[in-house]
Amino acid sequence: MPTRPQVLVLDDYEGGVSGSPHLAELADRVELTALREPVSQRQLARAVEGVPVVIAIRERTGFSAETLAHLRGVELLLQTGGHAYHVDVPAATREGIMVALGRGSTTPAPVIAELVIGLMIAWYRRLVPTGQAMRAGAWPATLGRLLHGRTLGVLGLGRHGVMVARLARAMGMRVLAWSTSMTPERAAAEQVEAAGFDDLLVRSDVVSIHLRLAPETTGLVGARELALMGPHSVLVNTSRGAIVDEAALVDALRSGTIEGAALDVFTQEPLPPDHPLRRLDNVLCTPHIGYTVDAAFDDFALTSAAQLRAYLDHRLDPALVLNPAVAWERPGQWGGLLADC
Predict the structure, then answer these.
(1) What is the pLDDT of residues 321-336, one digit of tens each?
(2) Domains in the chain, please, with CATH?
C-alpha cells in the first residue's frame, strides 16, 4: 500500500496550478502529477488509476455520468471554481466521488473586468483588423471611436459586473444595470442607473453579460433580445456561452441586426474549427481567457492546496462539498470531512 496518496491536476495547460508553491508545500504528503494537454475519456481513465484525488481546472473537462463511471478509485474531485455546471453530481454521488467547490476563492474582481474593457477598446478602436493590416505590410487609415460618452448595459451587477461598471464609469461611460435582485439602493451605491431588462437592451451601445448560468438564464439573450439591441450595438459575453442563443446570435451578426460581438465564452468549448463565429468579420473571439491570468491561477492553487490539506486531515468543510453524504456512506481511504463519522 502506498504511503502517500496520488493527486492528479487535470488540464493544467499553463502549469499555473501544478507548478505553484502552494501545492509544493504538500510534497511530503502527496504525490502530485499533472496533465498538460486535453485527454480522451479512455486516456483519463488510465491516468486516474490509483488516484484518489483529482484537481480539475474550471470546466475544461466535463464530468458526465459516463466519464465518472471510469474514475474508479477517485474519492474527491476538487473544482477550481465556485460552480459545477459541467459535473453530473448525482452520478458522482453514485460512484462515491465527493465534489468540492473552490468557494474560498479570492480572485480579484478585475480579472474579468479588465478583459471586458480590453475587448470594448479593441472593438471601438479596431485594434485587430488594424494590427492584421500592419502585419500584411499596410499602413491602414482607420477611424476609431471613443467609449467615452457611450452607454454600457451590464447584465448582472455581481462581483464581476460591479468592477466592469466602475471601470466603465472611470472612462466616462454611462452605465445601466439589470439583475433579478437589483434595488435602487444597490444601483445608487455603484452610481449606475437601474434599468428594466428590455430598456437596457434598447438604450445600450454595449451590452456586457455577467450572469450565472442557470435554467432561467440559459438562452436569455436570443433573437428577440438581439433585435432590441439594434444595428449599432455590440454584445460582450465573458460569462457563459449558453446564456446567449448562439444560432440566433450568428443570424443577427450575419443580418446586421447588431453591429458585432466580442466573445470569450461559447456553448461548446473549444469552439469547433468550422464554427461560423470564427469566420464572421464582425466577431472578436478569444479562447476563454477571462480567468487565465497569473493572479487567478495562484488563487486556484492556494484554494486547492488548502482544501487538499483539510481533506487529508479529515477537516474538509462539508459546506464546500456538493454531496457530503458520500463521506458518511463511503468513507475515503485518504481523507474526509470535518466531524465526519
Answers:
(1) 999 999 988 888 999 9
(2) 6-106+294-329 (3.40.50.720), 110-285 (3.40.50.720)
